[in-house]
């Protein structure tokens, strides 16, 4: 049972260094949004590159490929949820402006 609970600190450091950074809070809303989109796009490209390397038979750990796929998927789904919330907020503001 102790075998399961052991965590290698190097692995944790590697995961946190690859984690997407939150967008900078300085700058305009458009800049923050563009930074977030670029971050998601970067994760998508990393995922595609890892998949291509694995498919080409290059020495890539399948576990790492799957992690990159999941990171990109989670980032994309999160971005889409934020987009949906922004669209809902915009519609609500437009509804309030038109007298409801």
Quick overview:
The protein has 100 residues and is mainly alpha-helical. The chain has 4 helices and no strands.
| Helix/sheet category | mainly alpha
The overall strand count is 0
Which H/E pattern describes the elements?
HHHH
Low-confidence stretches: none
Give the overall form.
elongated
Distance linking N and C termini: 61 Å
Q: What is the mean predicted local confidence, pLDDT?
A: 82
Helix content range: over 70%
Q: Largest sheet, described in full?
A: none
Q: What is the tally of helical segments?
A: 4
Our Rg estimate from Cα atoms comes to: 19 Å
In words, what does this structure look like?
- This protein is mainly alpha-helical and 100 residues long.
- Helices cover 77% and strands 0% of the residues.
- It contains four helices and no strands.
- α3 runs antiparallel to α4.
- The model has no long low-confidence stretch (mean pLDDT 82).
Give the SSE layout:
Layout: H1 2-5, H2 9-18, H3 29-55, H4 62-97
Helix pairs in contact: 3-4
Short key terms for the protein model shown above:
elongated, 4 helices, mainly alpha, 100 residues
């Amino acid at each position: 049972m102790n075998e399961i609970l052991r965590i290698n600190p190097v692995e944790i450091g590697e995961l946190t260094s690859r984690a997407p950074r939150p967008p900078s809070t300085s700058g305009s809303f458009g800049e923050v949004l563009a930074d977030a989109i670029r971050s998601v796009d970067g994760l998508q490209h990393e995922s595609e590159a890892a998949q291509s390397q694995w498919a080409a038979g290059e020495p890539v750990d399948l576990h790492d490929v799957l992690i990159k796929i999941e990171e990109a998927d989670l980032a994309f789904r999160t971005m889409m949820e934020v987009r949906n919330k922004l669209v809902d907020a915009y519609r609500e503001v437009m509804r309030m402006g038109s007298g409801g």
